[in-house]
Design a protein that fits this description.
Spore Coat Polysaccharide Biosynthesis Protein SpsA, Chain A, 7-stranded mixed sheet, two-stranded parallel ribbon, 8 helices, binds guanosine-5'-triphosphate, binds magnesium ion
């Protein structure tokens, strides 16, 4: 039997967490795997943490960090979950338990539920779909990436997480993109599978704040990768 750890970052989800848990929990019961859920909260100004600690059947591990940062929460969760055979990343409003079942049938080290894969049905707004496409074109141009999506539902074999996550330090939304790019650079086998993309509630992110922050982050990441390559060559 495979062990699977699911990492879900949560921030200011007091109004939604219990409802979402009641949707996710019974679906997990149907999995023939040893499943552990990690809810990683940081910087919430509402009752998210207290509510997370009341959840049960199964009781999730609840981690908490001081400052709001999706990337820092993901990193903490992945490090805590790293001993499992597979580590999967869900959002609290966007998850797929059938994706976990599919993991065991794919011969790969990293499996991405790509919103842009053939057969995917992305039901988000046209603006968000355009954002995903533009972001992916940037990754192809700046990093020579060949994957079609990096942000969303994904699964990594435990050995990939144990090797790559300690060096993955991007904050905010770029953490998972950096992890996928590092997996590509390290030559791991990456498979993409189709997904129906339907969030359980409207987006809460501000596009206007996100775009410049993401662009700055990508340029910084490119510089970091170049300097890592230079350091490796000069050793
Ligand atoms: N720990 C933590 N979790 C966060 C933070 N910001 C967002 N999240 C969580 O990340 C997940 C996605 O957040 P959403 O607010 O739904 O993001 P979105 O507007 O749909 O944008 P996408 O990331 O493109 O899906 C949810 O589970 C949130 O609770 C944060 O600062 N810290
Ligand atoms: Mg969302």
């Amino acid at each position: 039997m495979f062990s699977v750890s699911i990492v879900i970052p949560v921030h200011n989800e007091a109004g939604f967490l219990a409802t979402a848990w009641e949707r996710l929990r019974p679906e997990l019961e149907g999995l023939e795997s040893d499943v552990t859920v990690y809810l990683v909260e940081n910087g919430s100004t509402d009752e998210t943490l207290a509510i997370a600690r009341t959840l049960e059947d199964p009781s999730p591990f609840v981690l908490s960090l001081p400052r709001p940062d999706y990337g820092a929460a993901m990193r903490e969760g992945f490090l805590a979950a790293a001993e499992a055979d597979w580590i999967v990343n869900f959002d609290i409003d966007y998850f797929s338990v059938p994706f976990i079942r599919g993991l065991f049938e794919v011969d790969a080290d990293v499996v991405i539920a790509s919103k842009r894969a053939p057969g995917s049905d992305d039901r988000r707004s046209a603006l968000r779909r355009a954002g995903t496409l533009t972001f992916n074109l940037l990754l192809r141009t700046l990093f020579g990436s060949r994957v079609s999506d990096t942000h969303g539902i994904k699964g990594f074999r435990g050995h990939v997480v144990r090797r790559l996550v300690p060096a993955t330090t991007s904050t905010q939304d770029l953490f998972d993109t950096e992890l996928v790019l590092r997996a590509e650079m390290a030559g791991y086998r990456i498979a993409e599978v189709p997904i129906v993309v339907e969030e359980l509630r409207e987006t809460r992110s501000s596009f206007v704040k996100r775009v410049p922050r993401t662009l700055r982050g990508l340029l910084q990441l490119r510089r970091s990768f170049s300097s890592e390559r230079r350091n490796t060559r000069s050793r």
